[in-house]
């Protein structure tokens, strides 16, 4: 009976123990960024100024607030230790308790170390080591809880933190240098692996800072080992030393490899689903890890999907009232999408440049942001080219529709007015082609700056499309001149456009992904069609020039004939100024023969006026004038008068 009871008790106890184990096995639902939490607290509360007393007080206040909010008071009259178990962890703040307990002990140890360095005292030295050992104990407790309650990344961070703290304890004890080195090397390896799979550049820089802070301790351990005359232990020996220390609660080598592989798989899956990528040039995908840049790039990607999606045709009955609106609505919506896309890309580039200034000292972050900024600049130039190409293509179609409508049958007055509003002028097409030409030039410059095979292909494709745009621009400038009654200039430009289009039609773009970026601008078939149209309108311009020349000759002949005096006299009283008493319309007419207004006659008619007689001085050669020599002598004799005469008389009297 006793045996049966004992066996039943064993069975019940085993079942209860198993049920207890099942209940105490939590699901990993928490995520603890331990390194970020510790670095933020140290940076904000005096550690960067070596004020460890302030940081210790902050940790004490933080722990007091955690105990109160989590209801972990240890009794009022008698101290009762409240140990945190994984089954009791219902909030991530439970994990903050051992972390800040370790930080408080570490801050006290660093405070004592400053005092020991200034005044060596053995009691303070022992106190320093005991505080570091206490910090290592709390760090091991935090690693145990995080390993059972959090994800793989948090567990590896806590493991590296505990190993680093244990290494500093052995370093201060100045014994077992190999064990201290093994812990530092294992922590360094963990931080390195975490930096490789970091979600963003900020987390990566935190891990790299931890590695950099441990480098002096690693060098000091190696120095002490070599000073003792021992060979530096290999990597396998260091891993074995860590695995033998079961009191750390650390992961062994196999478990560590499994955790790292699981973390890498999770990171790749998360990045592939959540990270935003941009592709420039084609085939080169760049991940966007910066948060603000990612938000702007994600908005740009959404707008790009809207632009690339096929549009449903709009069925609108073309009437005189809605024919213009039916054509303008889709064009305006596409243009607005392009404007929003360019604004989002510009915002992303601005955020990337701001992040470059902030992360200029980080390892690898600056180069990544620089490549991202260059890719965004290329995407902006490409989208500007797409927008200019869309506008130019739309204006070309409207201009061609206007030409076809002008050569067709006559329409009603309302339909004709609506068609004139919908048509595009040649000058508008020229301005759109100028914008497209500038976008292609910027794209070619980016290809030169990028360099490499892809940059060379982009430059060549952009320059070929720029030559095609110049040929098309020449064609539409000729149309503008032809509409301005300048057929001779239009004739010359139509000929030049035909030559350039013929040359461009003989060159084709290479079938590469980079060259395909500009393939939609103009094709070889477009150039062949442009050459034919230019030749046809060249003949039209020649005919217009001949017609205008013949009309000018007739006009000159008619004008000379109208200079007769009898015709001028007959039309003398045909204006309102000359006949104000006549009750008839002198305002002219705008319909029919379109007679001009007859308010006054200009130029005014010529009239004969009297002139003064012309006097010819031809008789002066036959006139005899009187002799006036005696008057000339008398004038000479009267010269010695006044002051000169008085002086002469005085001089003569003096001589006598």
Short key terms for the protein model shown above:
two-stranded antiparallel sheet, mainly alpha, 656 residues, disordered N terminus
Q: How are the SSEs ordered, and which strands pair?
A:
Blueprint: H1 2-23, H2 34-44, H3 52-69, H4 96-118, H5 122-149, H6 152-173, H7 177-196, H8 201-227, H9 235-244, H10 253-274, E1 276-279, E2 285-288, H11 291-308, H12 323-358, H13 365-407, H14 413-422, H15 426-450, H16 452-483, H17 487-505, H18 524-561, H19 565-570, H20 629-637, H21 643-655
Antiparallel strand pairs: 1-2
Helix pairs in contact: 3-4, 4-5, 5-6, 6-7, 7-8, 7-9, 11-12, 12-13, 13-15, 15-16, 16-17, 16-18, 17-18
Give structural notes.
It is a single chain. The chain is mostly helical and 656 residues long. It has a two-stranded antiparallel sheet. The chain has helices spanning 2-23, 34-44, 52-69, 96-118, 122-149, 152-173, 177-196, 201-227, 235-244, 253-274, 291-308, 323-358, 365-407, 413-422, 426-450, 452-483, 487-505, 524-561, 565-570, 629-637, 643-655; strands at residues 276-279, 285-288. Helix 3 (52-69) runs antiparallel to helix 4 and helix 12 (323-358) runs antiparallel to helix 13.
């Amino acid at each position: 009976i006793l045996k049966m009871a004992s066996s039943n008790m064993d069975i019940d106890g085993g079942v209860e123990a198993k049920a207890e184990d099942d209940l105490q096995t939590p699901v990993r639902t928490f995520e603890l960024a331990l390194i970020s939490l510790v670095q933020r607290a140290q940076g904000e509360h005096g550690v960067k100024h070596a004020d460890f007393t302030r940081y210790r007080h902050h940790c004490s206040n933080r722990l007091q607030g955690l105990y109160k909010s989590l209801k972990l008071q240890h009794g009022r009259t008698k101290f009762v230790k409240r140990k945190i178990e994984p089954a009791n962890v219902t909030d991530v703040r439970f994990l903050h308790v051992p972390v800040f307990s370790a930080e408080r002990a570490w801050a006290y140890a660093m405070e004592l170390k400053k005092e020991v360095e200034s005044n060596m005292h053995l009691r303070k030295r022992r106190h320093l080591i005991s505080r570091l050992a206490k910090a290592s104990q709390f760090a091991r407790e935090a690693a145990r809880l995080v390993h059972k309650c959090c994800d793989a990344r948090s567990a590896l961070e806590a493991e590296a933190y505990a190993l680093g703290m244990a290494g500093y304890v052995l370093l201060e004890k100045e014994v077992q240098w190999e064990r201290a080195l093994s812990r530092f090397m294992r922590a360094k390896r963990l931080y390195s692996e975490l930096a490789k799979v970091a979600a963003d550049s900020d987390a990566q820089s935190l891990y790299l800072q931890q590695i950099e802070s441990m480098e002096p301790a690693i060098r000091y351990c190696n120095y002490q080992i070599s000073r003792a005359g021992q060979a530096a232990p290999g990597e396998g020996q260091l891993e074995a030393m860590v695995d033998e220390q079961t009191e750390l609660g650390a992961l062994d080598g196999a478990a560590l490899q499994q955790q790292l592989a699981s973390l890498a798989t999770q990171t790749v899956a998360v990045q592939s689903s959540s990270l935003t990528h941009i592709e420039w040039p084609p085939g080169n995908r760049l991940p966007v890890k910066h948060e603000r840049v990612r938000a702007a790039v994600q908005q740009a990607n959404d707008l790009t999907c809207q632009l690339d999606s096929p549009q449903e045709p709009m069925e609108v009955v073309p009437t005189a009232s809605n024919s213009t609106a039916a054509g303008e609505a889709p064009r305006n919506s596409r243009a607005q999408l392009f404007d929003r896309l360019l604004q989002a890309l510009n915002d992303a580039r601005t955020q990337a440049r701001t992040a470059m200034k902030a992360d200029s000292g980080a390892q690898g972050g600056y180069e990544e942001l620089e490549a991202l900024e260059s890719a965004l600049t290329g995407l902006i130039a490409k989208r500007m080219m797409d927008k200019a190409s869309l506008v130019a293509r739309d204006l070309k179609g409207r201009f061609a529709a206007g030409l076809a409508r002008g050569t067709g049958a006559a329409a009603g007055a309302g339909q004709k007015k609506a068609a004139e509003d919908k048509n595009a002028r040649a000058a508008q097409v020229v301005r759109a082609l100028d914008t497209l030409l500038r976008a292609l030039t910027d794209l070619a410059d980016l290809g030169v700056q990028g360099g490499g095979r892809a940059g060379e292909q982009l430059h060549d494709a952009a320059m070929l499309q720029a030559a095609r745009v110049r040929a098309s621009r020449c064609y539409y400038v000729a149309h503008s001149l032809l509409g301005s009654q300048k057929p001779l200039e239009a004739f010359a430009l139509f000929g030049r456009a035909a030559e350039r289009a013929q040359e461009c039609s003989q060159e084709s773009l290479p079938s590469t992904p980079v060259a395909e970026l500009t393939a939609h601008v103009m094709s070889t078939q477009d150039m062949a069609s442009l050459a034919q149209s230019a030749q046809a309108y060249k003949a039209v311009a020649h005919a217009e020039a001949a017609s205008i020349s013949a009309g000018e000759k007739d006009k000159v002949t008619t004008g000379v004939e109208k200079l007769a005096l009898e015709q001028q006299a007959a039309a003398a009283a045909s204006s309102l100024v000359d006949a104000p008493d006549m009750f008839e319309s002198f305002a002219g007419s705008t319909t029919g023969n379109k007679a001009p207004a007859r308010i006054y006659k200009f130029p005014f008619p010529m009239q004969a006026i009297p002139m003064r007689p012309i006097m010819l001085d031809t008789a002066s050669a036959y006139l005899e004038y009187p002799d006036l020599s005696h008057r000339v002598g008398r004038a000479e004799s009267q010269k010695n008068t006044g002051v000169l005469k008085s002086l002469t008389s005085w001089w003569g009297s003096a001589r006598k």
